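Notebook p. 47: complex prediction with uridine-5'-diphosphate-xylopyranose.
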Amino acid sequence: MSSRIAVFGTGYLGATHAACMAELGHEVIGVDVDESKLAKLESGEVPFYEPGLDEVLKRNIANGRLRFSSSYEEAAEFADVYFIGVGTPQKKGEFAADLKYVDAVIETLAPLLRRPAVILGKSTVPVGTAQRLAARAKELAPAGAEVELGWNPEFLREGYAIQDTLHPDRIVLGADSASSERVEQVAREVYAKLLAEGIPFLITDLATSELVKTAANAFLATKISFINAMAEVCEAAGADVATLADAIGHDVRIGRRFLNAGIGFGGGCLPKDIRAFMARAGELGADQALTFLREVDAINMRSRTRMVEVAREAVGGSLLGSRVAVLGAAFKPDSDDVRDSPALNIAGQIQLQGASVSVFDPKAMANSRAIFPTLTYATDIEEACQGADVVLVLTEWKQFRELNPNSISGQVREKRIIDGRNCLDAARWRAAGWEFHGLGRK
Ligand code: UDX
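Predicted complex, structure tokens below:
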């Protein structure tokens, strides 16, 4: 059975969700206030880089199941299920999340709801938000108590957005006890195909569902900072963090994934989500419980400065006047996202210390230029490496991982490479005559 769905917000989360819901057979309208984004999406163009999403988008526009609009009236009239997929960025100068976009959806949508409706929130919000929004929606809507709200957090990773939306590890649905039956029924209809695959479906109260998302991101951030802390100790002790990660990762209680040491986490989620989590815990009087996340954040930021220091030492103690090639600008591979990207942050710090920095990334050049116009951008790996005193690999794109050392040996001034993501084969680079450094490695 197909549902009529409206998705508010057509950023990473919203655009992917809208396209994937249509892919599941539902009739979908994607809504945004940004006309330029809508124009791109309507013409079948994804405004960011996400493998495979353009095909899903084009296919479902062509078959008539997916369209876009800036009209809340049109969406309210059309749909029975309303997903909130707008951003919750960090507030300027504060740790807390800025909820103005989420609030705006409810304030604009609810007064238009004249029929029974279910609103499902997907955005990452501080615990307690959903309950407040549920009350506000009922208060504003002509349909009153027949407007019900559930929280259905999204766990998608950039680069795997379609896979994570259509085949998630689990579906979490929060609802208050009065609404839970309707909300659950609607979610079961929307996700019928996923549930038929046997994907675990967890039904909780609103607060738990909000916390599941923040806790998951806090855990992942902690795992990365843990291994980066081990990398610092390994450097001090002359040990090797990559081997250590492999060895502890064999213990199934620990697991090897998300134990890649390097320049740490960035992106539009983990950094701001752990900060918003600390801020919210503070408001709830539970700040002590999360003080460790300050350390997680600090270790993460230190991983970036350590990389700058390793580069400075590698070129003889001062970056002034040196030439540095930076391979990678996106916060992770298979993405053009440079929000809080460790790679760009490091490139910027190195330039501020007087080096001339030439950056190449397979997909993130336009976004990097927009936020960091003062760096030099090269058109390919070879150009970035021209005359370099040191090459830094800061995002583990496949083409960097598989790079043949001999292909750039002729370009560089010094055959010196630093692997900021522990993604290169050190023996191969050394065999080709390169001086090789890895973070936390021998
Ligand atoms: C994350 C969560 O994984 C996802 O579930 C949530 O919905 C949104 O936030 P994403 O931001 O797309 O997803 O990226 P993720 O793959 O989690 O990587 C985050 C950062 O951690 C990247 O900068 C990555 O390079 C870094 N990382 C990841 C490491 O430094 N080491 C690792 O071992 C893994």
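Notes: The chain is about 45% helix and 15% strand. Residues 154-158, 217, 220, 224, 258-260, 262, 264-267, 269-270, 331-332 surround uridine-5'-diphosphate-xylopyranose (CB under 6 Å).
Next step: compare against the earlier run before touching the bench.
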